[in-house]
């Protein structure tokens, strides 16, 4: 790993999927911020070299963040803020933006993010969010995000990205917002995989490549690899799910029927990417060949976490950390793309040194 001497801060860091990729690309992660005791425990176990603040981000003054910076500025702020859960407005956000966003408490998180960006003034910003942000408030929420960033002096755009298009063995659509304040037009890394045979790109990666060696591995709690203890009735249901298919609810025998089957009654296909890892009620999708849901380790493999990464907490808590994360494989490719932009900007004299 080459150290580029460029710096980053990770807000809403979670299990670290974003900053793992950026660090592997050569960025120095100066600080992570989240508001979750288990995330802090996972972070300290896996990233003891990176400071973390575990508090409500609204209660963290910018002066405290700056204590972790050895230089006068930071190159990039990355993060995946949830759509809900925070309040308070930044004092540098203009009043018209405040009026636009204060109507809905879900939007106040954007003001918090804008406050930090306004005061830290990173040269680049990365925000990741779920696909639902596109339709939240009929699209007004996302437009508010972009308006706030642009008022803060950033060129900012968004794109709906499928992680499978970047080599992740998982169909996972996420909205990525990129921005910079150095005058560059906003662009996104080009896909390097495709599900279209007419594209001159490698095919999507199958999930079996990262799962097959774990198929017969015994439970290992220290490796986050513990099979969920399903009921006999659920096991009988799983036996009816074809590879790559879902439970045939309309053809179930009476003793196996119930109302409101969830999305967890879907089996992965060995020759396809996995379904999106969503941390439901302890259950990931069904294993391609076994009559059980995926273990946390198997889900982490699909999310491209290294095997050295250990998640703290009980099974549900581990699963939520894995399922909510950005795949490190994608975040590294995004970081490398931004590094190329930085180098180009320096050649053009657009990128001032620290």
What is the helix content?
Answer: 25-40%
How would you describe the shape?
globular
State the total count of DSSP E strands: 7
CATH domain class name of the domain at 7-193 and 326-347: Alpha Beta
* Separation of the first and last Cα atoms: 22 Å
Report strand order across the widest sheet: 3-2-1-4-5-7-6
Give the biggest beta sheet.
Answer: 7 strands, mixed
CA radius of gyration: 21 Å
Succession of helices and strands: EHEHEHEHHEHEEHHHHH
Portion of residues in beta strands equals: 5-15%
Question: CATH topology of the domain at 7-193 and 326-347, what is it called?
Answer: Rossmann fold
Averaging pLDDT over every residue, what do you get? 88
Low-confidence regions: 84-102
CATH superfamily of the domain at 7-193 and 326-347: Vaccinia Virus protein VP39
Structural class: alpha/beta
Descriptive report:
By secondary structure, this protein is α/β, with parallel strands linked by helices. It has a domain at 7-193 and 326-347: Vaccinia Virus protein VP39 (Rossmann fold). It is built from 11 helices and 7 strands. It has a 7-stranded mixed beta sheet. Strand 2 (28-34), helix 2 (37-46) and strand 3 (52-54) form a beta-alpha-beta unit. Helix 5 packs parallel to helix 6. The longest helix has 20 residues, at 328-347. It is globular and about 65 Å long. The two termini are 22 Å apart. The relative contact order is 0.14.
């Amino acid at each position: 790993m080459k150290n580029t001497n460029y710096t980053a801060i990770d807000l809403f860091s979670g299990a670290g999927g974003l900053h793992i990729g950026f660090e592997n690309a050569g960025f120095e992660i100066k600080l992570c911020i989240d508001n979750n005791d288990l995330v802090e425990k996972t972070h300290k176990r896996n990233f003891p070299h990176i400071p973390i603040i575990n508090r409500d981000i609204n209660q963290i003054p910018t002066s405290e963040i700056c204590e972790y910076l050895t230089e006068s500025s930071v190159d990039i702020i990355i993060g995946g803020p949830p759509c809900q859960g925070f309040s308070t407005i930044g004092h540098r956000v203009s009043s018209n933006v405040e009026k636009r966003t204060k109507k809905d408490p879900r939007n106040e998180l954007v003001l918090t993010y804008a406050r930090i960006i306004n005061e830290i003034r990173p040269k680049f910003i990365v925000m990741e969010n779920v696909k639902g942000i596109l339709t939240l408030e009929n699209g007004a929420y996302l437009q508010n995000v972009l308006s706030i960033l642009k008022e803060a002096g950033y060129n900012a755009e968004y794109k709906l990205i499928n992680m499978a298009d970047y080599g992740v063995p998982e169909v996972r659509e996420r909205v990525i917002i990129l921005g910079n304040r150095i005058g560059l037009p906003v662009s996104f890394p080009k896909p390097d995989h495709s599900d279209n045979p007419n594209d001159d790109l490698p095919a999507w990666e199958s999930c079996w490549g990262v799962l097959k060696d774990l198929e017969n591995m015994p439970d290992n709690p220290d490796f986050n690899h513990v099979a969920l203890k399903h009921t006999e009735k659920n096991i009988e249901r799983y036996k009816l799910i074809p590879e790559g298919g879902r439970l045939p609810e309309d053809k179930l025998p009476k003793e196996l029927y119930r109302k409101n089957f969830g999305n967890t009654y879907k089996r992965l296909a060995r020759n396809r990417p996995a379904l999106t890892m969503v941390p439901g009620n302890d259950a990931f999708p069904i294993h391609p060949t076994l009559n059980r849901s995926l273990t946390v380790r198997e889900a982490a493999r699909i999310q491209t976490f290294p095997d050295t990464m250990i998640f703290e907490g009980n099974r549900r808590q581990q699963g939520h950390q894995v399922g909510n994360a950005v795949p490190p494989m994608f975040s590294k490719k995004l970081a490398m793309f931004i590094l190329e932009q930085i180098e180009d900007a320096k050649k053009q004299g657009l990128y001032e040194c620290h």
